[in-house]
Every structure is written in C-alpha cells, then in structure tokens.
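note to self — DONT lose this again. spent like an hour looking for the file last time. sequence + predicted structure for the chain T wanted, 140 res
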Amino acid sequence: MTSRTGPGRLIFAGLALIAAVALVAAGGQEQVDEDKQVADGEPDVVLELTAEGREFYIAGEDEENPDLTVAQGDVVQVKLEITGGFHDWVVDEFDVATEQMSAGNTDTIQFVADESGEFEYYCSVGTHRQEGMYGTLIVE
C-alpha cells in the first residue's frame, strides 16, 4: 500500500479542521437554519395560540384569528394548543408549520421573522383555510 500525502489531502484536512473549530466556537450561540428559518436559542417573542373550530386565538383572549405583530429579525416562538378539532399552524413565507394535531395536544415551533410585510398564517387541514381559519402575521 502507498500513502497519499499530496497537497490535496492537506487542503482537505485543513478544511475539516476549520469546520470542526467553527462548530466548537458556535457552541452556546443561536443557530439558524436559513433554509427552514428554524431558530434555536431564546425567542424574542412567544405567541401562545389555541385552535378550535375554524379559529385561532391568542391564549386567554376572545378575538378570532387575530393579527400577530412581531419585529423584523425577531426569533419568534409559536406554541399552539389544540383545544378542539384537528389543526396545525402554517406560514408559507417562513417555511414553518406545527404538527397536525388533535384536541389536547400542543406543538412549539420557532423561526426568524427575517422579512418585513404581512403574511397569512392558516390551518392546512382539509378545507379549514377556505372556511376562514387564517389570520395575518405582521412583521414590522
């Protein structure tokens, strides 16, 4: 057997070392997956929502499908509790969605609101969206 120790192998080893150092250096800091807009770390905003019938509610409030307002750049955490029926919570532009769940279940998702504007959130189960189960996420 012959050993390969050319410059290509050294470059590869160097790149591997740089990647390992970067992973260690990033430990404990917020990590963001740019493709899925999923963020780890402490959220800037926590939205506690419930879903029942064909409506979303902010937990403890009566307004149906309320406008949800956050600041651009916020790490947003959404806690969805299903209090009746079978639902989820989706925002296409940020590529985020909770699990589809039945009553008594809760799911939490987190994402970076990195684009300003008004975005529709909705339930993707069956025809719930068409039946009015949607609202507006406002990113200022």
